[in-house]
Every structure is written in structure tokens, then in C-alpha cells.
Request: fold
Amino acid sequence: MSINKPYRDASGLPAEIPLFPLEGALLLPRGQLPLNVFEPRYLEMVDDAMAGQRIIGMIQPDPTAPADAEASALAAVGCAGRITQFAETGDGRYIITLTGVARFRVDREAPVSKPYRTARVDFSSYAADFEESPDADGVDRAGVVRALREFAEANDLSVDWKSIDAAATESLVNALAMMSPFGPAEKQALLEAVDVKSRADVLIAITEIALARASNAPAPLQ
Reply:
């Protein structure tokens, strides 16, 4: 994790954080998410975060909400990240990188006092997020790599297999989950997976379903 003072538990995190709703964006603990920020309300959010504890909560619009639901509905779970890289472009944008710290459950949104949304959040369900698991016991690493290889071949993608082989299991699973081209519901499922093993299983299943759909073959039974 590229954070100078890693968080050992939730006590170092604010109870109320700014929210950055972004469909299809997935941030996971110790993962890194680059963002191009240009909307005035989110530029102000970054300014305020940089002046404080540099924490921003990434969250998706609720992927389960019906089409006629309010656009403001948010998913119940997001991930807090710390701004670990920051640059101004000179044309009114910020280029930042968030490094994931821990997932949270939205307790309640705070009254509107800023152009962006904030919420009181609860990290208690995700205490394990503060502990790195480089070995990720029980993860079907071979299955993850196999699914990636089949997906890459089916979509004519170039993959740096040496980097894949060298990556720690947790880093591999989380990086593949974050960069995967799947939809909001699938990304939310990956976020809410209980642990790295469960996330790997979800990733394999989603990839196999996508491959089956692409080939018009029956999806494997799970």
C-alpha cells in the first residue's frame, strides 16, 4: 500500500466522509484507482479532502435500483480511499490516485452543506480490510489465471503474463477485479465479496458467464 502511515484500524479514519458516486468504478483495499476530476463540485471535494485527511469514499449509484428510481440512490457499500497522488493539469482538472483503505457501509447521508454529498459511514463490518493478505489462503489462483487467459484470448487482449505470475495473490485478484470490464452489478458483487477468496470465486464465475454468453454456450453451473 503506497501510504506513508498505513491505517491499522478504523480509528484513524473520519466518521463522515465525502462521497464520489461513479458508476462502474471499483476501488478495493490497497488497490489504486486513477481519477480525472473536472466537475466543479468534485474539484471542491478534492480541495477539501486535501486540506483535511485526504479521504474520499468511492461508491456506485445503486445497481439494483429500478430504472424509474431516483438517480440519487446509492449502493449500500463503498470503499474509502486516500489521495496518494495529486496533480493539476492547468486546464481546470485534477489528476489524482486513490489508494483503497477499507470498505464501509453507509449509515446515513449528512445534511447538504457542500455541492457534493457526504455521509456518516461504518467500517465495523470490514475490519479485515486493514490487514494485508499477500498469500490469500484458499484462493483458486490457477482458476483466476485460467479465466483471465481465456478472456484475453477471446477478446484478443495483450497481457503481461510475467507480471501476473509475479504478483501477490491478493494484489492480483483485486487488480483484476478493479480493471475488469464488467457492469455495475458485477462490480458491486466484487466489492461486497466477504474476502479475497470469495472475490476470486466471484471473478471466475463472472468471467465464465461472460465467455459463455459471448460464445452462446451454456454458462457453467455454480
Q: What stands out?
A: The two ends are 33 Å apart (CA to CA). Residues 88 and 94 are 5 Å apart (CA to CA).
